[in-house]
What we know:
Structural class: alpha/beta
Largest sheet: 5 strands, parallel
Pfam family, one: IstB_IS21
CATH topology: Rossmann fold
Radius of gyration: 18 Å
Protein name: IS21-like element helper ATPase IstB
Helix content: 40-55%
Order of helices and strands: HHEHEHHEHEHHEH
Family: Belongs to the IS21/IS1162 putative ATP-binding protein family.
Strand order of the largest sheet: 2-3-4-1-5
Oligomer: single chain
CATH superfamily: P-loop containing nucleotide triphosphate hydrolases
Strand content: 5-15%
Organism: Haloechinothrix salitolerans
Distance between the termini: 57 Å
CATH class: Alpha Beta
InterPro entries: AAA+_ATPase (IPR003593), IstB (IPR047661), IstB_ATP-bd (IPR002611), P-loop_NTPase (IPR027417)
Shape: globular
CATH architecture: 3-Layer(aba) Sandwich
Amino acid sequence: MSxxxxxxxxxxxxxxxxxxxxxxxxxxxxxxxxxxxKANVALLGPxxxxxxxxxxxxxxxxxxxxxxxxxTTLDELxxxxxxxxxTGRLTRQIRTYLRPTVLIIDxxxxxxxxxxxxxxxxxxxxxxxxxxxIILSSNKAFSEWGPIIGDEVLATAILDRLLHHCxxxxxxxxxxxxxxxxxxxxxxxxx
Length: 191
């Protein structure tokens, strides 16, 4: 029921590939005290650094501890909220995202939101504030969320609620998916 896209744990994560990542902080977060505190976790970094892997790992740890978990991308979440709103079921759909103890929202920042999208996201974040945890991944720094949300004031209001009780993990390193491809494209060394 968690809809996690894959079963990857922290043991499967190659911390040596991302040396800038604070392993101790990640493992502390994986102890799930943030869930008990109804706090949030934000995973920030460029594509391919393992944000989704870490989000899923935390989701698996939460499931194993008996917590309800639900995984979605921001794009999918917004599409479902739009569809529910069009059929008069918005309140019911929002409850779907309020029910789990941990809501994982992946890929924040890949697609810009229009005003209605941003309002829907604000409603959800506002309703979950201090009542349930959110784990989100984003390829954008928080300072870049204004253009993504499409409204600086609304972006500030969303971030205010998300970040009030939040562990932020920034990952700055190479793409795991591209590591072998980049090696394949290196020109041969001359003799």
